[in-house]
Amino acid sequence: MISFSYSLEYALATGFAQRHPDYIEPPIDEKHEARSVELVTVEGCAYETNTATAVLITHNGREAWIPYVEIHGASELLADGTPGTLFIPRWLAEVRGLPHSD
Fold first, then answer.
1. What is the pLDDT of residue 5?
2. Neighbour tally for 65: CB within 10 Å
3. How far is it, in rounded angstroms, from Cα 88 to Cα 101?
4. Contact at 8 Å (CB) between 39 and 89?
5. Inter-CA distances, 42 with 34, 37, 77, Å
6. Other CB atoms closer than 10 Å to residue 77's CB: what's the count?
7. Predicted confidence (pLDDT) per residue in 55-98, tens digit
């Protein structure tokens, strides 16, 4: 296991890391504070490929990039393409058009 001692903000500022081209900021409320994260379940997702920052999944024939930082640790997504389950924030599931359950 590799441990990193710097923040993502530092890595981005120094050019060590770059955001994925499909990166979107989480929605903010009127006070410009991040909304609380409500996880939803997206079942039947199949792994397609990945980059250093995100995974490409298919769900009912629709492709969606999901950033690793938004995937909850209890998610089950197998590299062999077997359909699995993702636990991701509600806002991301809605932006990507993925059907979900609470």
1. 44
2. 19
3. 11
4. yes
5. 22, 15, 11
6. 18
7. 999 999 999 999 999 998 888 988 888 999 999 999 999 999 99
